[in-house]
Amino acid sequence: MNKYFKKAAYALVAMLTLSACGGDDPVEAPKPAVVPTVPTEPTNPDPVTPPASQLSALHVDGPFLVNAEGRRVNLHGFAQTFSPWFNERGTRWSNYDVEGCLRYNKGIIDGIMDAGWKMTFVRQHMDPYWSNTPGKQTTGEGDISAFDFERFKKYLDEVFVPMAEYAIGKGLYVVMRPPGVCPEQISVGGEYHQYLKKVWAHVAQHPKLKNNGAVLFELANEPVHIAGADPDAEISKFMQELVDMMRAYCNNILLIPGLGWQSNYNSFVKYPIQGRNIGYAVHCYPGWYNSGVEDDVEVEYRDFSRGWNENILPVATKGPVVVTEMDWAPKKYESSWGKATTGVAGGKGFGANFMRIADETCNVSWLLFTGGELLAQYNDNAPDGSTFLTDPEACPRPVFRQYKYYATKEYEDLINQPDHVPTIKKQPLFALTNEWFNPSIWEKGTFDETTGELVTGKYGFGGWQYANGIDLSGYKTLTVELSQKQNVGASFRMFDTNNYWTCPFRVSFGDETKVTIDLHQMKAYKDDACTQYDHDVDPKHIYIAGFWTMGGKPIYIKKVTLE
């Protein structure tokens, strides 16, 4: 089973945990080999370093990025990785050629800007190509055994800082990412934690980077799991130690990554990161946050929005969100990490719905992770076509035009309206509406709010999800009524942990249309026959509740009442 397939399958399960269990996290971004059809020549083969930029220094004020003039800012941009492999497969420079690397990557920035892209930031990867000992074998980017701190310091000065300065001179804020990716499991005080502290302690003291209001630091790339009994507490402690260490040296904005390849952020709602100038670095690809998987591009806005609001919106009310990886395109182009279509905002499709959801959240900055060499080739005057750069269902065309809107005074004024703030809607208890009832908690189902008809997928589950739990301990009973008898093995289930794959309280309808549950006498069993006791269900924190059926046939829900 290949790496992406395993993680895509994992995502279907992990999204059901609704972020409470740090070890059960959504899928890593699909990351195939991306090979441009034609190698690109930089627009300017010998770029000249621009004069110092007049970028307004950024800081964090509440949930927003704010500039020195007190205006809210959402950034929109692209990404660069400084290694031969990611710079057109070694066809442009190699052999630790600093000048070749700088010439190529500065040329890419020039090409993108010359193509008319309204970019305002770039995420730059301090790639381990430079800091690893040449010739020393590793098992991947999460393997730091070849890391050479002296090489890192040398090439920070010779490659990474010059590239940051060049981007800033071109009017781009810079997000700097540490070398490589997190190993599959990290731990507080572990080897990788110490590695990050060493890297960031040096970067944070660099005279050209420290307290630079145009430079933001993304503290790690794609942590997956963390050791410890309470992953939420552990990841918060892991990041807090990095924040505290860096605050001894700099005031730069620090972007905190979550577990699950940067998709799980309720950890930081439960255990907030303390300090000033804190934001959150999020990744978003097709297949994440209920947005559909590679072979299912029929993404529904409602499901995507619900998944985003459960995992990202709560932390967005605490600080600004910067999506540092995201793209999409139909699979046939093999030019994007994410495989999906643009679709229609509010309907089906990934891209248009992502942009709508980001805008609805109010304080989301984001980038297009597509290779810069492709973005530099974009021509908005070319007619719609069937190529990656001309197909409206691939990301470049709709994003280019969306970025133009973001550059307008209209958009700037909109995000600076006093009431334009990230807001969590208060979720009603057991509402039988399309907005709140999810027919696809497990397997794909349908729900009709006018008739109460629920059809689950095979052995499926539909109902309600409460990301932070609800307290029903003040009620005595819960009564669930169907409009008519069912014949699909329906049962009503309640979970006191935020994980669908734990043991719930369950009660079968059988031939009855109504069941009444004593909320203070609920017991969870490991089996449907309720013979293998697991634990007493605590009504003080119910995370998931709803209907399990064998699937394919409807049940008709009349009402759910609390007394």
* Separation of the first and last Cα atoms: 50 Å
Q: How much β-strand is present in the residues?
A: 15-25%
Q: Give the CATH class of the largest domain.
A: Alpha Beta
- CATH superfamily membership of the largest domain, which one? Glycosidases
Shape: globular
Low-confidence stretches: 1-44
For the biggest β-sheet, the strand order reads 4-5-6-8-10-11-12-13
Question: How much is the radius of gyration in Å?
Answer: 25 Å
What percent of the residues sit in helical stretches (DSSP H or I)?
Answer: 25-40%
CATH topology of the largest domain: TIM Barrel
How confident is the prediction overall: mean pLDDT? 90
Number of domains: 2
Structural class: alpha/beta
Total helices: the number is 14
* Number of DSSP-assigned strands: 25
* CATH-defined architecture of the largest domain: Alpha-Beta Barrel
Question: How would you characterize the largest beta sheet?
Answer: 8 strands, parallel, barrel
